[in-house]
Design brief:
Pfam families: Aminotran_5
Oligomer: single chain
Subcellular location: Cytoplasm
Strand order of the largest sheet: 2-10-9-8-5-3-4
Protein name: Phosphoserine aminotransferase
CATH superfamily of the largest domain: Type I PLP-dependent aspartate aminotransferase-like (Major domain)
Bound molecules: 4'-deoxy-4'-aminopyridoxal-5'-phosphate
Enzyme class: transferase
CATH topology of the largest domain: Aspartate Aminotransferase, domain 2
CATH architecture of the largest domain: 3-Layer(aba) Sandwich
Strand content: 15-25%
Subunit structure: Homodimer.
Number of domains: 2
Order of helices and strands: EHHEHEHEEEEEEEHHHEEHEEH
Shape: globular
C-alpha cells in the first residue's frame, strides 16, 4: 500500500523526505554501525546531533541568545502543570486566555499550582471567535499570561501576537510552531508537543527566556525544574533520542524548503484553497469560525447533512485521503494542514469535496 494524503491532527504527517532519510539511516547511522536509537545520549555522535538540532531551530526561528532551547518529554499536557510550578510561587496568580479545548485543559492542569485568572475567554461564543483584546482583564501582577495561539480542535488561531505589557507571555504553540516566522522576543516561554509540526510524539520543544529560569517558586524534584534541564543541555535523564533525531531532520528539511517565510506562504495558500472550497460550496460544506480567527493549520468543517458523514469518510479514504474525521467534541470533519501536508494534498481534498458535493447534493 502506498502512502495516502494524511490530514491527521496529531500525531500527524511528517515530511516524506525525512521518513525516507530515517529509513536509509536506520540500521547504520553516520557509519557508526548502530541505529541512532541504540547509542548513548552522552556520546560524541548524539551530542553533535543535539547541538545541530538546536542550532537549526535557533536559525529557523531567529531565537535570541537570551533564550534557552529545551528538548523535553511529557507532552504539552505535562507542561500545562509544570509551567506554573516553574513560573509561579506560593500565592501567585496567572492570567489565562481561553479560546478552545486546549486552553481549558491548560487552566485545569495549572490550577493545583497557581491561582488561575481566566482573563479572557470566548467560551460563551462557543469558541467561534477570539475574545477581543479590549475585553481581557489582565492583572499587571500576574506571574505570566498563557494563551493558545492555535486551537487544534476548534480551529481558531491568533494572527497577531497579543500585547500584554511587561508580564511574560507563555504560548502553547503545539499546533502552529514553525508554520510561519514569529518574533520570539515577544514571548517569555513558547512550548510545543512535537507530534504536529516537528516530529513524533513524546518530545516537547521549549523556548524559554533565561531570566525566567531563575524564578524561585517552590521546592520540586530536579526533573520538574526547567533551570536544571537548561543547565544540563536537556540531558538530566535519558531524553527521547529518536524523537530528537527526527526533529533535527525536520529542521533541516524546513531549511531546505526555504525556511519559515516559505512555509508561511505555502500554508497560507493551502488554507485559502480549502476555505475557498468550503465557502464556495453553496452551503454544502460549512466552517463557522469568524473569518479573522480561522486557523491555517486545522480546518474543521461540517456537511450540510450529517447523515452524509459516514459516506464522506468512507469515500474520502477510498480516494486516498486519510484522517478527515472531526474531533468527537465537535463532530463533522477536520483537515489538518501542517507543514508536511503539501498543496497537492489539499488540491486532492478539494477535488474530492467538489465531486462528493456534486454526487450527493
Ligand atoms: N495543546 C495543543 C494546542 C494540542 O493540540 C495538544 C494535542 N493535540 C495538546 C496541547 C496536548 O498535547 P499532548 O498530547 O502532547 O500532551
Amino acid at each position: 500500500m502506498s502512502r495516502l494524503w494524511n490530514f491527521s491532527a496529531g500525531p500527524a504527517a511528517m515530511p516524506q523526505a525525512v521518513l525516507e532519510r530515517a529509513q536509509r539511516e536506520l540500521l547504520d547511522w553516520q557509519g557508526c554501525g548502530a541505529s541512532v536509537m541504540e547509542l548513548s545520549h552522552r556520546g560524541k555522535l548524539f551530542m553533535g546531533l543535539a547541538q545541530q538540532a538546536e542550532a537549526d531551530l535557533r536559525e529557523l526561528l531567529a531565537i535570541p541568545a537570551d533564550y534557552a532551547v529545551l528538548f523535553l518529554q511529557g507532552g504539552a499536557t505535562q507542561h500545562f502543570g509544570q509551567i506554573p510550578m516553574n513560573l509561579a510561587g506560593e500565592g501567585d496568580s496567572a492570567d489565562y486566555i481561553v479560546t478552545g479545548h486546549w486552553g481549558e485543559k491548560a487552566v485545569s492542569e495549572a490550577a493545583p499550582y497557581v491561582k488561575v485568572n481566566v482573563a479572557g475567554s470566548s467560551k460563551e461564543q462557543h469558541y467561534l471567535q477570539l475574545p477581543p483584546r479590549d475585553s481581557w482583564q489582565l492583572d499587571p501582577r500576574a506571574a505570566y499570561v498563557h494563551y493558545t495561539p492555535n486551537e487544534t480542535i476548534h480551529g481558531v488561531e491568533f494572527h497577531a501576537i497579543p500585547e500584554v505589557g511587561e508580564v511574560p507571555l507563555v504560548a502553547d504553540m503545539s499546533s502552529n510552531i514553525l508554520s510561519e516566522p514569529v518574533d520570539v522576543s515577544r514571548f517569555g516561554l513558547i512550548y510545543a508537543g512535537a507530534q504536529k509540526n516537528i516530529g513524533p510524539s513524546g518530545l516537547v520543544v521549549m523556548i524559554i527566556r533565561r531570566d525566567l529560569l531563575q524564578r524561585a517558586t517552590r521546592p520540586m524534584s530536579r526533573i520538574f525544574h526547567y533551570a536544571d534541564h537548561a543547565a544540563n543541555d536537556s540531558m538530566l535523564n535519558t531524553p527521547n533520542t529518536w524523537g530528537w533525531y527526527l526533529a533535527g531532520l525536520t529542521f533541516q528539511w524546513l531549511k531546505e524548503q526555504g525556511g519559515l517565510t516559505a512555509m508561511c506562504e505555502r500554508n497560507r495558500a493551502k488554507a485559502e484553497l480549502l476555505y475557498g472550497s468550503i465557502d464556495g460550496s453553496g452551503g454544502f460544506y460549512r466552517n463557522p469560525i469568524d473569518l479573522a480567527a480561522r486557523s491555517r493549520m486545522n480546518v474543521p468543517f461540517t456537511l450540510h447533512d450529517s447523515a452524509l458523514d459516514a459516506a464522506f469518510l468512507k469515500e474520502s479514504e477510498a480516494a486516498g485521503l486519510l484522517a478527515l474525521k472531526g474531533h468527537k467534541a465537535l463532530g463533522g470533519m477536520r483537515a489538518s494542514l501542517y507543514n508536511a501536508v503539501p498543496l497537492e494534498a489539499v488540491q486532492a481534498l478539494v477535488d474530492f469535496m467538489g465531486d462528493f458535493a456534486k454526487r450527493h447534493g
